[in-house]
Design goal:
Shape: globular
Structural class: alpha/beta
Strand order of the largest sheet: 6-7-8-3-9-10
Strand content: 15-25%
Number of helices: 9
Length: about 230
């Protein structure tokens, strides 16, 4: 289970953008977090993914209280996550070819021997050809780059996926394709999902339940909206 309790977080002293927010995602559950741009939901997602240290509150991952963020988090916790952001060009090293981008987490974890097999497995799943794997970010579209970023998020077989507006810059067909990849992975692995966005229809169809940011803020418990028929 992923539990965030009374999280307060921000980027400037004494001016938090998230105040006292609590949210829980059960193992294998898909939870949508719905809210307008600038409300703080992306900051909460970064806290959940151990990428931003909160000013207050606790994060509990699989029954263990988190005490370190980013590179100070234990490897077993860091590698439990696959994270996908809204703007792939801000999260991709422009010097790397797409195949190298996908392999980044394996290389960083000293698992180079696994790179050919894992990249070979994931590339067709996300819709990337061998020719595209040899290109650099400036040589591909946003959709193609986001496909590579999704493969990178899945390469370590994470138990938790954090998708922060991952389809906001994509067309409808690419959105459908990437959501299908995420859902296929979840069915096979039992991974939990926190999907952040402002598209009510997408989140309702994608997730088991959707939580509104307005209901989280200052409330002791979140009110879930019923999912749409899928």
């Amino acid at each position: 289970m992923l539990e965030l309790r009374d999280i307060t977080a921000g980027y400037e002293p004494r001016t938090p953008v998230v105040r006292g927010v609590s949210l829980t995602v059960a193992a294998g559950e898909a939870v949508g977090l719905l809210g307008p741009s600038g409300c703080g939901k992306s900051t909460l997602a970064r806290v959940a993914a151990l990428l931003h240290r909160p000013d207050g509150g606790t994060v509990t991952l699989d029954g263990e209280t988190v005490t370190g963020w980013r590179h100070r988090a234990p490897r077993r916790q860091r590698t439990a996550y696959g994270v996908l952001f809204q703007q792939p060009r801000l999260s991709a090293d422009p010097r790397l070819r797409l195949g190298e981008l996908i392999a980044e987490p394996l290389r960083a974890g000293g698992r180079r021997a696994e790179i050919p097999d894992r990249v070979g497995e994931l590339a067709p799943v996300v819709g990337l050809t061998d020719e595209l794997l040899r290109r650099r970010p400036h040589e591909v579209s946003d959709g193609q780059l986001q496909r590579a970023c999704l493969a990178r998020a899945l390469v370590l077989r994470p138990r938790w996926l954090i998708c922060d507006e991952m389809t906001a810059m994509l067309d409808a067909s690419t959105t459908a394709a990437l959501v299908a990849v995420v859902e296929s992975y979840r069915r096979e692995s039992g991974a939990g999902l926190l999907a952040v966005g402002h598209d009510r229809t997408l989140l309702a169809r994608w997730c088991d339940r959707t939580v509104r940011w307005a209901d989280l803020t200052g409330a002791p418990a979140a009110r879930a909206e019923a999912p749409a028929d899928r």
